[in-house]
Specification:
By secondary structure, this protein is an all-beta fold. The protein contains no helices and 14 strands.
């Protein structure tokens, strides 16, 4: 059975936005399957919130279901001088099981980040366990929102060679690099210095 990694749905802007509300300083996601149906997903995110309109980009949202469970979490909020505003741990996360489907067993951990003044930076690390899942994997999006620039975004997925790996690039071409060893296949992509995608003037809020 092949794993489908829908890597890269990053719509690159042709012009730089005049307003930037947040900056992804660094995003790193590493997915490693140890077998056909089990593995680990490790994410590290560092985002700087520049003003009130960018606050939502700093909120932490972690989606889970019967295939993905939260194994570890830690984070920290720092001010413009790099001083610690608040340290975060798994116990700080709130959880909701609200779903539009009664048969859906998904749930979400979340935390709304704030600081006394702008700019401030949110850094957090998430470890999720993958179990009984090898059909498809969530896509990698370099951007989290509009009016947001990206300094660096990196994604990699590694699977046993006998599992196989497929991926599809959307709105980009040739950015995924693959490597094979005697027993594993790894696909990686890295994007740097992406300009913000401006909010459309007449788009709904």
């Amino acid at each position: 059975m092949m794993i489908t990694a829908w890597a890269l749905c990053a719509c690159l802007a042709t012009i730089r936005a005049e307003v930037i509300n947040s900056v992804i300083e660094d995003y790193n996601c590493e997915v490693e399957y140890s077998s056909l149906t089990s593995g680990t997903c490790r994410e590290q995110t560092t985002v700087t919130i520049l003003n009130e309109n960018g606050v939502g980009a700093g909120h932490i949202v972690i989606h889970c279901d019967k295939f993905m469970s939260l194994e570890g979490f830690k984070g920290v909020i720092t001010d413009v001088d790099g001083k610690e505003v608040k340290k975060l741990s798994k116990k700080d996360l709130k959880m909701t099981e609200a779903s539009s489907s009664l048969s859906d067993d998904s749930y979400t951990y979340y935390y709304e980040t704030y600081a006394p003044r702008y700019p401030y930076t949110v850094h957090y690390e998430v470890v999720q366990k993958i179990k009984n899942q090898s059909i498809a994997f969530a896509g990698f999006h370099a951007y989290d929102s509009r009016d947001q620039s990206v300094k660096r975004a990196h994604y990699s997925i590694s699977v046993p060679k006998e599992v196989g790996l497929r991926y599809k690039e959307i709105n980009v071409s040739g950015v995924v690099k693959t490597q094979q060893t005697a027993d594993r296949i790894t696909a990686t992509v890295e994007m740097t210095d992406l300009p913000a995608i401006p909010t459309e003037v007449y788009s709904p809020s």
